[in-house]
Design a protein that fits this description.
alpha/beta; 12 helices; 9 strands
């Protein structure tokens, strides 16, 4: 634990749109941190459901609230960049309104920064939460800390709500790319990690919401995914052209694997399984290809939930978060 005098300020940025109850839950997870020197910035992207009045009445003088009117709304990355411009902290961390920080997240990440002054970002691991109840955990691969300038083109390392940045570092690289509506944090990592090293707290410190039923979740829209991939390939064309054969296979395989989880039809999913298998054939992938297995299908998620209940894949009960 840090002494109050020694605590660097951390800016927590929450973006929300018409989800005042979820925003309230997210804000409470920020205000409930064991690390005390935090400013909580809420960026409301054109909500019209009474979010402004509700949050201001609930959190008087506890949050910095910024409203983006409809005629100024430009998407989630624009909202995050406004948060970056308003931040006063030495570090900045982002939280999507449907995710939750566990109580020690910020404390652990600030400690990681204090141990290694050469890093520009620290992320943590996640509990994946389905149906607001039981979760499964993720681990970490050895090549996802330090210099990951090439690793970011072969695997998706993490998500926005786990990340804490040195404020100068994220400003130096220009923040989030506002041209993207999908793979925002992945592209940010691609750009950021060409300039900075990163570290990881090997603890599950957030509850990450898995929701395959909400059509408005950007992660559920395949057309946005395809457009974003094309944009990223054009943006990093010089870098990608310099890849070795193996590095190029890793990049293509990464795209296809994510396409499988996002595909809106069995036909499209089968097509990307065929493409992925052609790049990196394996027994496991062959079985999944035959089954046309979707990692984010209801059946797959229920299986993971059952494994959690049985204690075979880690479990966490949402209601016990603040115990």
């Amino acid at each position: 634990m840090f002494n109050n005098e020694a605590q660097p300020l951390v800016s927590a940025v929450i973006i929300t749109h018409n989800r005042k109850k979820l925003a309230e839950r997210a804000i409470n997870s920020v205000l409930g941190q064991t690390y005390s020197n935090i400013e909580c910035i809420v960026i409301d992207d054109k909500s019209d459901d009474g979010t402004q009045e509700y949050l201001k009445s609930k959190f008087t003088n506890k949050i910095m609230y910024h409203y983006i009117p409809p005629d100024s709304s430009k998407g989630g990355n624009h909202a995050r960049n406004i948060g970056i411009s308003l931040a006063s902290g030495n570090y900045i961390a982002f939280l999507d309104d449907d995710d939750i920080w566990l109580r020690h997240k910020i404390e652990r990440q600030v400690q990681a920064f204090s141990r290694n002054r050469k890093i520009g970002m620290v992320y943590c691991l996640r509990f994946f939460c389905y149906k607001n109840k039981y979760c499964w955990t993720e681990g970490r691969d050895e090549d996802t800390v330090g210099d990951v300038s090439k690793t970011v083109f072969k695997k998706i390392i993490t998500s926005t709500s786990t990340m804490m940045f040195d404020i100068d570092a994220i400003r130096n690289i220009g923040g989030f790319d506002e041209n993207l509506s999908c793979w925002q944090e992945t592209e940010l990592m691609m750009r950021f990690c060409q300039n900075y090293k990163i570290d990881c707290v090997d603890e599950q410190l957030i509850l990450y919401t898995v929701d395959i039923t909400d059509p408005e979740r950007l992660s559920n829209k395949f057309d946005n995914f395809e457009k974003s991939i094309n944009y990223i390939e054009n943006k990093y064309s010089k870098l990608i052209k310099g890849f070795s054969d193996d590095e190029n296979k890793d990049w293509i395989f990464m795209k296809y694997k994510d396409a499988i989880s996002r595909a809106g039809s069995k036909v499209l999913m089968r097509e990307y399984y065929e493409r992925a298998y052609a790049i990196k054939p394996s027994k496991g992938l062959k079985i999944k290809k035959i089954l046309n297995y979707k990692p984010t299908s209801k059946i797959a998620l229920k299986i993971r939930m059952c494994l959690s209940l049985a204690g075979l894949n880690g479990h966490f009960v949402l209601d016990s978060m603040n115990e």
